[in-house]
Amino acid sequence: MNDLQVFSNSQALAEAAADTIADQARRSIKARGQFYLVLAGGSTPEPTYRLLGKPPYRSQIDWSRVHVFWGDERCVPPEDEKSNYRMAWEALLAHVPIPATQIHRIPGELPAGDAAAVYQAALRAILGPNPRLDLILLGMGADGHTASLFPNSPALEVEDELAVAVHAPDQEVPWRVTLTLPVLNRARTVLFLVSGEEKAEALARVREGDEAMPAARVQVQSGEEVWLVTAVA
Ligand code: 6PG
Question: In terms of CB atoms within 10 Å, which of 144, 159, 171, 181 comes out highest?
């Protein structure tokens, strides 16, 4: 956790996140012609997505050069209100001129193992066998999980797959697909967005390097790891 920025409220956090994403998009597109962005699920990122989908941020990004992926998905149909895809579509993707062929959702309507295999193949088809994504957005739960990497999960030890199926029985949607740690740790930039006082203990444990917290296992190899948090988290 080499860069931690604390904000007084979630709106200030969302604006800082939107600034960071727009800046990273400009840099990636200038350097390599594309911006490979991984969206996070849950509720925290939604205000940031809404900001990016309207002026002034909307026009700051050349959406024709952007590919979006997800860090994880619940195994539900894309129109389900619990779908991470649906949240991002409604908050952002429906409002920006990104080509539909550049939206790479995890097919949550499939059985988890099939969905993970389809998603992994899509990632490899676009970015090669060991994809390096430009910016990966992540959230964190009160138990220190990130994406759908939960404490003590076998998925935390997977090294030879990009995406795996996860069964998390205590979650409202138990079957999920998640990117694995090697993909997260190969990113150029990982941006954590964390808000909510219920996460304060987990955040403190991550800052201490407690690897029982999956979020502490995100250790970007040769890139940036930035945490934007609200004061209560
Ligand atoms: C998901 C997310 C998950 C989320 C955390 C935080 O599918 O639920 O990917 O990892 O980021 O649970 O969720 P909130 O932002 O809703 O607190």
Answer: 144
Contact 35, 25 (CB under 8 A): yes
Q: What is the DSSP string of 31-50?
A: HHS-EEEEE--SSTTHHHHH
Enumerate residues lining ligand 1, CB below 6 A. Answer: 40-44, 71-72, 74, 84, 139-141, 145-148, 196
Tokens encoding 205: 């444990």
Distances 206 to 6, 66, 212 between C-alpha atoms, Å? 15, 31, 9
Please, which residues bridge with residue 67 across strands? 36
Task: Please identify, by atom number, the ligand 1 atom nearest to the C-alpha of residue 44.
Answer: 15
pTM over the 0.70 mark: yes
Domains of the chain: 9-221 (3.40.50.1360)
Q: Give the model's pLDDT for residue 161.
A: 98
Distance of CA 74 to the CA centre of its chain: 13
User: What pLDDT score was predicted for residue 231?
Assistant: 75
